[in-house]
Amino acid sequence: MKKVRKFKVGKFLLFLLLLIIVLILIIIGIYKYETSPVSNNTDPKIITVDAGDNYFTIASKLKKQNLIRSETFYKIYLKFARPTSLLNGDYELNEAMSVSDIVKVLSDKDSSKSNTIKLTFREGLNISQMAKIVEEKAGIKADDFIKEISDQTYLKQLQNDYWFLSDEIYNSEIYYPLEGYLYPDTYHFEPNELDTDTIIRKILDNTEAKLEPYKNTLQNGTYTVHQILTLASIVELEAVSDSDRATVAGVLYNRLNENWSLGCDATTYYAAKKPMTERLTQSDLTACNGYNTRCTSMIGLPVGPIDNPSISSIKAALEPNDNDYYYFVADTNKKVYFTKNAKEHDRIIAKLKDEGVWAA
After folding, report:
1. Do 173 and 203 belong together in one domain?
2. Which pLDDT belongs to residue 179?
3. Which domain holds residue 255?
4. How far apart are CA 113 and CA 186, in angstroms?
5. Do residues 61 and 188 share a domain?
6. Residue 328: enclosing H or E segment and its boundaries?
7. Is residue 6 part of a domain?
8. Which of 62, 339, 358, 359 is the most exposed place for a label (fewest CB within 10 A)?
């Protein structure tokens, strides 16, 4: 009986040992996976380390930018790695980097872009607004910047290098030929790179990288690249959130298919060269030019984009939600109401006015 017990105990211990080894291997596998690169995408992403930040507090920033799979495993790695102190500044990372690669860059004092000039353009800015940022940060006068990027000889040079620039940008009614093509993002420049051509080409390189996955669709679709960017620019300003963009795009396509006026206030503001914080006048609403879709005689898309849209809006323009809505309106709480006819639309507006939440 004792030999049997010893045999059973020995067998149990062996099983337990094997179980522990299997669990350890599983844990190691999970750890390796969770600290591995998120994807093969090497497009640069900038992470800003502010005063008071440390490796642990920036975990949420890294996760939000899709640079790490798990905040928890990132922090576990830090416990083992014990990296050197983190310096303030901007760091260029990408999704193809593992957690160890990311921490290595963050711990390298020479990786910080704190000495470079940073130009940040948010989604929905137009070229006039971007030019003011260039003047403030890069010292190039806004008028000079706009003049240089509107020169036809220069534009022809850019056309040779970027497949998405077509002759549609030369329409005489267009305010700024490159409107819609300057992808909104944060860009870093060395002091000796602060000239218009370098700035524009770095931005267009980013635009090309963003559009490349959709190149086949853009080149072979019903609408041209220029028209898609035009529609995307309207979606950018008319939609309240990412979740609404594809539905707003669907509404615009419905109106286009029925040969209706788009009737978008955002185009009227651009046509009048007014910021959207000002009130539109009756003359603004009725003035007919290549942009104002509130003009009753204007059917179809404007002559060009009215701002520089995000990839979210571009994707919505390429992949709209199929719906039977023809109207939409938003309230002050950023909720969007979609309706099928003018009667429903007017009823919603009246209700929002009564509640004091109409975003007029």
Report:
1. yes
2. 98
3. 216-355
4. 12
5. no
6. strand 327-330
7. no
8. 359
Which one of 172, 190, 213 terminates a domain? Answer: 213
Same domain as 207, residue 125: yes
Cβ atoms of residues 83 and 106 within 8 Å: yes
176/266 same-domain check:
no
For 211, the enclosing helix (H) or strand (E) is helix 196-211
Q: pLDDT of 151-205, one tens digit each?
A: 999 999 999 999 999 999 999 999 999 999 999 998 988 888 899 999 999 999 9
Type of residue found at 118? K
Residue pLDDT, tens place only, 100-159: 999 999 888 766 666 678 899 999 999 999 999 999 999 999 999 999 999 999 999 999
What is the spatial distance between Cα 318 and Cα 264, in angstroms, rounded to a whole number? Answer: 19
Structure confidence at residue 296 (pLDDT): 77
Pairing of strands 327-330, 336-339: antiparallel
Residues 137 and 192 in one domain: yes
Residue 14 is assigned to a structural domain of this protein: no
Whose structure tokens read 């218009």? 196
The two tokens of residue 356 are: 């004091």
The pLDDT value recorded for residue 4 is 54
Which amino acid makes up residue 114?
S
All residues at 6 or more sequence positions from 168 whose CB lies less than 8 Å from its CB, including other chains: 224, 226, 304
Find how far residue 16's CA is from the centre of its chain: 52
Nearest residue to 155 via CA among 120, 200, 123: 200
